[in-house]
Amino acid sequence: MAQLVLQRVTLSGLKPEFVPADPAGDSAPMPSDNVFIVVRNGGSDWVTVTINSVRPCDQGFDHDEQVIVPPGQEVWIGGPQFSRSRFVGPGGRVSWTYSSTTSVTVAAFRL
């Protein structure tokens, strides 16, 4: 599992750097609610990103969150919807896996 470094979005701008998705999954630090994961699918198949839940949701169930990334598109995941109490695991990190990593790149950002 690759550990992504947060790229800070500042007033002076940011040239984002994307890395290939790790077949074993990726993780990123989650120091605040202003963290986003961006997944780009450069392939021709749909990709499912599964965010690992480490605690039950507000309904009492411990279930992972799944996000679909259509072919040729990117999806931004996170922000305030990333419940720190539900998704942040050991070391203050959130982790996720992919249904496929062929032509998939990823980056993590903090506002």
Task: State the gist of this model.
This protein has 111 residues and is mostly beta strands.
Provide the descriptors you would attach to this structure in a database record.
mainly beta, five-stranded mixed sheet, 111 residues, 1 helix, globular
Description:
By secondary structure, this protein is mainly beta. It contains one helix and ten strands. The protein has one helix spanning 84-87; strands at 2-3, 6-8, 19-20, 26-29, 35-41, 47-51, 65-69, 74-78, 93-98, 104-110. The strands form two sheets. Strands 1-4-9-6-7 form a five-stranded mixed sheet, with no helix packed on it. Strands 2, 3, 5, 8 and 10 form a five-stranded mixed sheet that branches. The chain is globular. The model has no long low-confidence stretch (mean pLDDT 92).
Low-pLDDT segments, ≥5 res? none
Shape: globular
How far do the termini sit from each other?
24 Å
The overall pLDDT average reads 92
Helicity range: under 10%
Provide the gyration radius in Å: 14 Å
Pattern of helices and strands: EEEEEEEEHEE
Classification by helices and strands: mainly beta
Please count the beta strands (DSSP E, at least 2 residues each).
10
- Report the biggest beta sheet as strand number plus sense, adding barrel if it closes: 5 strands, mixed
Spatial order of the strands forming the largest sheet = 1-4-9-6-7
Write the layout of secondary structure elements.
Layout: E1 2-3, E2 6-8, E3 19-20, E4 26-29, E5 35-41, E6 47-51, E7 65-69, E8 74-78, H1 84-87, E9 93-98, E10 104-110
